[in-house]
Write a structure and sequence with these properties.
Shape: globular
Distance between the termini: 38 Å
Number of helices: 1
Structural class: mainly beta
Helix content: under 10%
Oligomer: single chain
Length: 129
């Protein structure tokens, strides 16, 4: 498994922006599928965005598609989630996830929690109205 450490969460007003970062351990970060998920109080963990190992393909949830962008820097072992136009309903703990097994990047599976074999501890994002 991979060690993942998220950062960048915080309190922001509606309409504001944040950038989350996730640093991964391991020498083969460039082979990992990376994803972001979130979990609001009393709700199940839900998919936000994912990116393939090279960074050439991304998928995002419909609820964030026009506002959030996932990217990665394989030289820094880091994946990012840039969030714009934040809304109160974006309030949640945001988790970074990795698949280090070299799995194929199919949309139907990379958007599910069960695809990933490593998870970070999460970072809180709170959006005030």
């Amino acid at each position: 498994q991979v060690q993942l450490v998220e950062s960048g969460g915080g309190l922001v007003q509606a309409g504001g922006s944040l950038r989350l970062s996730c640093v991964a351990s391991g020498r083969t970060f460039s082979s990992y599928v990376m994803g972001w998920f979130r979990q609001a109080p009393g709700k199940e963990r839900e998919f936000v965005a994912t990116i393939n190992p090279s960074g050439s393909t991304t998928y995002s949830a419909d609820s964030v598609k026009d506002r959030f962008a996932i990217s990665r820097d394989n030289d820094k072992n880091t994946v990012y989630l840039q969030m714009f136009s934040l809304k109160p309903e974006d309030t949640a703990v945001y988790y970074c996830a990795a698949d280090s097994r070299g799995s194929r990047f199919f949309r139907v599976v990379v958007t599910t929690t069960t695809f990933y074999d490593s998870w970070g501890q999460g970072t809180q994002v709170t959006v005030s109205s």
